[in-house]
């Protein structure tokens, strides 16, 4: 799958460059991190409790299913944080050293 | 009730949706300067959520039939903004009598209050279905936010499933925006809707709008099935949703290919802060869920704590505006300040009509409690921590946990990241069915601080 989300309008915005898991991606100014990631991929993260991939659920900051991290370890809800130029995002929990699912 | 101790020094409103904005406006007009705390970056709440700066769609495109109301509310807020103490991007995560604990951009602070008005809104009400944890299943409200706030569709081919007016509203908004809608699958049968017409006639304009939405879907040749029973969201753990399987009203199995599902059964109130404040709750028979116990004007059972909007009683955005004004007037009255009796009666009258209408909605689009009973043991109830219906049922059959909080302690259903927002109501139904008692008897999940997860990196700042 190329991307999960499909852009329907508002595509004339300036682009913003950021890094996701070490790879550069381009998003549009005003995109949430969730939209930036899911217009180019099919999931945001790995579930800690099974082998499932997760792509968020509520988009209103209530379910906490869309956590991603900055390289420095700050946790962000992808649905309610906008992209910024140069942002360095990792989609795996930085402090997790135990096996996350079995 | 009103006491001499109640002071107008520090009035705090939590939530800048329709209820919170109208409340702030009414207080400001009476000469009070409230603090308005909101978790969102921009005002409007969920239904009148504003698109980010730099987006260009007009009000008609964004809000459709609700465009005039959205514009009016936003303009009211723009006028207020400089005159009140507005604190966006701020989560109230706990409270004690007279003090709120807040976090904004990773920094903790406290806010003292003499009077508190909770306008905390609602989230989607969910009933699990086998496979709903797969990537590509979103809450119905979430699907709407994707479109309204970000101009995206949640998938290349979207199924709308569940029940309630929002199902038709969002599906038709998707069609209008050019998204590919595969089907609208409603658990409510036509007969319920016909039976509810007398109550729905309390607001004929809204009833007509609903019928217009349905007509738009038929005109766009979107398959609409009423009275379905959801069976499964199909797909796999790696790539997510690939379809849905339901039983139609005629008993046939229907499979619809899709890569996204928008799922929801109307709304549930966000009552955690009121719960932490010690406000009494009451069970609403019509919608079969726990609401805040408030009087006609929004006073809770706790002196100095008021509530308005869907966070106390689910009656929709129009009612929230009226309830916000009324709660402000209740506070003014308790402060022995003059209120405009004509304006107050107007709000009360409008709310009485909306109460009647909401009873009609509850009858037309009932919460599908029986689905919880029929849920296979393998189906996931807690999507945060992947806990199945079978595991939850075993806490009832093996450990005798017939109360929601006890079953939560044993099973962890309600203890994950969402803190029960998306599983505890359905979990209560599963427990009630397994224990053979009414859902009211198994109780409700208690609110716990922090009401949303906080980062361990949260810093303390001096006030």
Automatic annotation (TrEMBL), chain A:
UniProt xrefs under Pfam families: Fer2_4
Any one GO molecular function term: iron-sulfur cluster binding
Signal peptide: none
Keywords: Oxidoreductase
Keyword Oxidoreductase among UniProt keywords: yes
Coiled coil: none
Transmembrane stretches, start-end: none
Record protein name field: NAD(FAD)-dependent dehydrogenase
Naturally occurring in which organism (per UniProt): Pseudomonas frederiksbergensis
